[in-house]
């Protein structure tokens, strides 16, 4: 190797190696501090682009999950209202059957009728109050049911059909003005209540099936979001155990690089010694 005071090849080589080590050390320290091996497009543009797209899907699925949670709440309120109405119909039928007894006197019939009318009024209250976040599946206001987000692209939806349990609907087969004032009225009311109870229970079955479908899809969306999150982690998360070991190795390499550079910088002094008298 030529000895020259103009060109110190050993020092340049040592400096290049030290610069590379410092760059690798900076990268490793960045991964340890951020927890990412791909924190931005500069680190790996293609992986970063894929990760960002998946993150967009995850964010969209969060909105889908919110919509499904709202759907479940609306369905739960409707089911609770329908179950309460079913219970009231059972009590109303008992009162109607008792009122068909021709041997009871006017006082007893009036008592049965008062109970019956109280039940009718309670049904009307339940139907109007079975609402969550402005949506009511029981009062007939949502003639086409209500739809909710089902996927991250907002291209599909799940629909929960409404069940009109108001006295203006077809599920309850008696009017809000019905009474048990006479034996004849009571007898007719027994049949109407039997039909109404069957209709309400069938409606509850449909609402329950819709709620189960919402639960199933909500579970799927949650698992899908978790899988996507795990996938993004596999793409961009740093393996901190490996990075810790790499950090220690690079720190030692940096120290050795500094020493190598110091040794290389002594070469001009060696050349000077050649011209010193003996």
Which characteristics define this entry?
278 residues, mainly alpha, f41 fragment of flagellin, N-terminal domain, 2 domains, two-stranded antiparallel ribbon, 4% strand
| Percent strand | under 5%
Question: What is the CATH fold-level name of the largest domain?
Answer: f41 fragment of flagellin, N-terminal domain
Question: Which stretches of 5+ consecutive residues score pLDDT under 50?
Answer: none
Radius of gyration, in angstroms, nearest whole number: 39 Å
Strand order of the largest sheet: 1-2
According to CATH, what is the class of the largest domain? Mainly Alpha
Q: Write down the overall mean pLDDT.
A: 89
What does the largest sheet look like?
A: 2 strands, antiparallel
Q: Could you state the order of secondary-structure elements as H and E?
A: HHHEEEEHHH
* Second CATH tier, the architecture of the largest domain: Up-down Bundle
Task: Provide a count of the helices.
Answer: 6
- How many DSSP-defined strands? 4
What structural class results from the helix and strand content?
mainly alpha
CATH homologous superfamily heading of the largest domain: f41 fragment of flagellin, N-terminal domain
* Number of domain modules: 2
The helix content, as a percent range, equals 55-70%
Distance between the termini: 24 Å
Outline, from the CA principal axes? Answer: rod-shaped
Can you characterise this structure?
The chain is mostly helical. The chain contains 6 helices and 4 strands. It folds into 2 domains: 9-35 and 239-274; 45-236, f41 fragment of flagellin, N-terminal domain (Up-down Bundle). It has helices at 9-34, 45-99, 106-129, 183-236, 240-264, 267-274; strands spanning 131-132, 135-136, 146-149, 157-160. The strands form 2 sheets. A two-stranded antiparallel ribbon has the order 1-2. Strands 3-4 form a two-stranded antiparallel ribbon. It is rod-shaped.
